[in-house]
Every structure is written in C-alpha cells, then in structure tokens.
Write a structure and sequence with these properties.
By secondary structure, the protein is of the alpha+beta class. The protein folds into 2 domains: 233 residues, DNA primase, PRIM domain (Alpha-Beta Complex); 105 residues. Helices cover 46% and strands 11% of the residues. It has a 4-stranded antiparallel β-sheet with strand order 2-1-3-8, covered by helices on one side. A 4-stranded antiparallel β-sheet has the order 4-7-6-9. α12 packs across α13. The longest helix has 35 residues.
C-alpha cells in the first residue's frame, strides 16, 4: 500500500535537507558552493546548472520533490568559463559518495553488514579526528544507503610526482570509482559510476518514487550525521598514504598489463605473418635505403611504422632508431620542414598509433597509385642491384 505524502509539509524538510548537504561541500572560488548541477524526476534525470539555492528549490518543487538529486561537485566547466578557475585546473576527489543498494543483497542483515564493513574500511583508510567513521554522514535513500565522506587534499593527483605518468587520465574520477568499490569490498552498487561531472545523490526530505511505487517509505532520510559537518571543515578527513599508494599500484599494474597484452598481440600477429612466410617486404626495405624529398610524414604513417612494428615485430626503440636513420637520408635530399623536432613528434605518434591499432602497411598497388614518383625511385634502386 502506497504511503500518503503531505506535499505541503515537504518544502521545509527539503530545504533543510538541501542546506544540510550543502554544508558537506568545500568552498570554491569565489567563495561559494555553487554553481553545480541538479536533476529531478521532471527533468528525466537530465542535469541542469544552478547558481542559487532558491533556484534549486524551484526545480524541486516543480517536480513535486520527486527523485531530486544534487551533484556533489561544482560545475568546474562553468567556473572556468567565468574565469573563476584557471583553464588547466584539475579537481581533487574531495567527496566520496558510496551507494549501497538494497536490491544487491538477499536480506536487510546483509545490507547492514555491508554498511558496517564499509564504515570500518573508511576508518582504516581515511585519517580524521575523532575518526573517519564518526565524520561520515549516512543517508537512507529509500532503497539503500548513501554514505557521504568529505575529504581534504593538499593538491590534485595530477600534481603529485607519483602520478606523473598518468596525467592523461581523469584521475579524480578514477579514484572516486576505485575508492567506492575498495571501501565496500565490491559490495557497492555495480551500476553506480560516479564522476566529477556526475556524482549525484538524493537530497534528504525528497521522494524516491521507486520506493513509493513499491509501497515502501519513500522519504529520503538522514540516518547519521558526520561530526565534521559541525566543525566547519576543521577536521575534514584525508586519505591515508597507504590507501593512496594502493590506487597508484592499480594504475601501474594496469599499465604493465596493457604493455604485456600489446606485446602478446604483436607476437601473435608476427607468428601469423611468419606462417604465411611474411617476415619482410622487399619494396619497403628498399624504401628504407633511400631518402625522399616529399610525403615523408605520410610514408612514416602508412608504410614504414606499420611495417617495422607489425610485420617485422620490432620493439618501439629499434623501430624509432631505424626511422631516425631514414630521416637522415631524407634530410640529405631535402631539408626536413619545418624542423626535426616536428618529425620526431610524428615518429612517436605513428609508432604509438601502430602499436595500439596493430595496423599493417598499405599494399604495393596502393603505394604505386599514391606515390608514383617514389615508386620510380625504388625501381631504380632495384635495378642497381
């Protein structure tokens, strides 16, 4: 049986819940906790940027307070557009949102055990006063628990020397997802994939329509208030170094696994070529012996890099050295334009692309069609032998 809801009483409860959750957030330039995004049942889950609390409440009221969510992170893109943050600003993962969904467990006891396991792991891996466990806020979402952990960082992960090799990844989002699964020992909702741009949670006082339709109490409620909320952030928790290094170890292992997998794929491909008696291609070997005055970048991409990596199975450094020698020959014929540095960048790009795609060189007939002048030079070279 569906529970009757007094919508007239919800405004105060929702405003109080919104205000309570906003106290968990760190301030962002120029000294505010907005803008950030929200969504409601009326928006179909689509996020909308808001700059004022009364605007948030207008959205929530218009949706009859159903399925009202708030992003745990500010809208950094908007702040960059307003020049409140530098364009190269990297956010820190300073808010962990852990989702323990009731439907992932066979009974309520398992859910409660998962919550206690999560809190114990938070206590062990996050430093805080009096304890990370005490500074954690727990909200009943209507179908499970949302565990809220505010964190303090001295710098972005990308700025830490240990993570210098991983700057091309979205480290903050990677950490959010890894931390959720690690702290819950894999018991968090597998469909929950928080990110800096989309880390939405239900606001206390609002209505969970799935719970309502199932005949359950649909009102989102605060179960436990983190002590940190009342300390003005003075004792905001921070991640233990050992926990952070476990995340670093994961990234390193992924890098190793990717390299091993790439090497194994290349070996399988080389084995297949050898079975077909293809270990070298004469016309490409002859091309490597001569310098050319045009189409050098295209030849590296379409012919030489895939030949050395995919067909001959050379490692990156050997292939790079051979191509550098070939460019020396080309430079003797005609100066490399605009400069050697540009060509070295091209070499690295072409070799990286070939390693990722395992691409083969173009066929001889295609080469003759697109590069007839260079083909003639190769024929002359062949006649010399």
């Amino acid at each position: 049986m569906k529970q009757e809801i007094d919508y007239g009483m919800l405004w105060d409860k929702v405003y109080e819940g919104l205000d309570f959750m906003m106290e968990h957030f760190n301030y962002v330039p120029p000294g505010n906790r907005l803008p950030r995004t929200i969504s409601t049942g009326a928006t179909g889950g689509k996020q909308h940027r808001v700059d004022r609390r009364d605007t948030i409440m207008s959205y929530y009221k218009a949706a009859l307070y159903e399925d009202c969510r708030l992003n745990a992170y500010p809208d950094f893109d908007a702040l960059k557009q307003r020049h409140s943050l530098p364009q190269d600003y990297k956010p820190t993962p300073d808010y962990l949102l852990i989702d323990l969904d009731r439907k992932s467990f066979e009974n309520d006891e398992q859910l409660e055990n998962a919550l206690q396991t999560t809190l114990n792991n938070i206590n062990k891996n996050i430093w805080s006063e009096p304890s990370a466990k005490e500074n954690t806020t727990i909200v009943w979402s209507g179908n499970g628990y949302h565990v809220h952990v505010s964190l303090r960082w001295c710098m972005a992960l990308e700025e830490m020397p240990e993570f210098a090799n991983f700057k091309d990844q979205d480290l903050a989002t990677r950490f959010l997802r890894w931390a959720e699964q690690t702290l819950t020992e894999g018991m968090a909702d597998q469909h929950h994939n928080p990110s800096i741009k989309s880390c939405l949670f239900r606001v206390p006082g609002t209505i969970n329509t799935k719970a309502r339709d199932a005949g359950l109490d649909p009102i989102v409620k605060v179960v436990k208030v983190g002590t940190w909320v009342y300390c003005g952030g003075t004792f905001s928790p921070k991640v233990n170094n050992d926990f952070l290094m476990k995340f670093h170890s994961l990234l390193v292992q992924e890098l190793i696994d990717a390299k091993v997998e790439k090497l194994e794929r290349r070996q399988r491909l080389s084995t297949g070529l050898l079975k077909n008696n293809i270990s070298s291609i004469d016309w490409i070997d002859r091309l490597l012996q001569i310098g050319v005055d045009d189409n050098r970048k295209n030849l590296i991409f379409w012919v030489l890099a895939p030949y050395l990596i995919t067909v001959r199975g050379l490692d990156y450094d050997k292939a790079y050295a051979i191509l550098e020698t070939w460019l020396d020959k080309c430079n003797e014929v005609k100066r490399l334009e605009p400069d050697r540095t540009t060509f070295r960048y091209r070499l690295r790009y072409c070799l990286d692309t070939v390693e990722d795609q395992e691409r083969k060189p173009i066929k001889f007939d295609t080469f003759k069609e697109y590069y007839p002048d260079i083909y003639k030079k190769i024929k002359l070279r062949e006649m010399e032998y």
